[in-house]
């Protein structure tokens, strides 16, 4: 079972433009403000100031999603976690919020309403969790 990524972003919540820019960087691997700005403006219906892209990149860096490197005269931003790791974190956060806000009856009612494919998936998760716990106990 893969652990939660480390390091983790300090703030998981992202606005729509932050999310869009992060997806662009994941697609490119790393990017400059110019590359991101050009990609957003490739849509003729979009308008966005170059400075706005810089502001969002700085915010994503402060939140712990990106790291900025200076190459010669250009700044390049790279993701600190992969798209897949972000999905794991997002799923973990949603599950924790659901469990924290729900009592056992609500969780049971939710589980009872799942279709057969979802139940099979939950059973597979439970089996994997048991195997990981057994392996951990054998190591101790």
TrEMBL record:
<comment type="similarity">
    <text>Belongs to the BlaI transcriptional regulatory family.</text>
</comment>
<dbReference type="GO" id="GO:0003677">
    <property type="term" value="F:DNA binding"/>
</dbReference>
<dbReference type="Pfam" id="PF03965">
    <property type="entry name" value="Penicillinase_R"/>
</dbReference>
<protein>
    <submittedName>
        <fullName>BlaI/MecI/CopY family transcriptional regulator</fullName>
    </submittedName>
</protein>
<dbReference type="InterPro" id="IPR005650">
    <property type="entry name" value="BlaI_family"/>
</dbReference>
<dbReference type="InterPro" id="IPR036390">
    <property type="entry name" value="WH_DNA-bd_sf"/>
</dbReference>
<keyword id="KW-0238">DNA-binding</keyword>
<dbReference type="GO" id="GO:0045892">
    <property type="term" value="P:negative regulation of DNA-templated transcription"/>
</dbReference>
<dbReference type="InterPro" id="IPR036388">
    <property type="entry name" value="WH-like_DNA-bd_sf"/>
</dbReference>
<keyword id="KW-0804">Transcription</keyword>
<keyword id="KW-0805">Transcription regulation</keyword>
């Amino acid at each position: 079972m893969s652990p939660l990524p480390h390091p983790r972003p300090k703030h998981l919540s992202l606005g729509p433009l932050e999310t869009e820019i992060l997806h662009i960087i994941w697609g490119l691997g790393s990017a400059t403000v110019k590359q991101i700005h050009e990609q957003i403006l490739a849509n003729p219906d979009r308008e966005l100031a170059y400075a706005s892209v810089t502001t969002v990149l700085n915010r994503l860096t402060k939140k712990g999603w990106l790291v900025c490197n200076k190459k010669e005269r250009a700044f390049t931003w790279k993701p600190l976690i992969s798209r897949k790791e972000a999905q794991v974190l997002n799923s973990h956060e949603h599950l924790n919020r659901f469990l924290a806000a729900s009592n056992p009856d609500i969780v049971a009612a939710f589980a009872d309403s799942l279709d057969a494919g979802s139940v099979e998936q939950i059973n597979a998760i439970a089996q994997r969790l048991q195997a990981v716990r057994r392996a951990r106990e054998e190591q101790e």
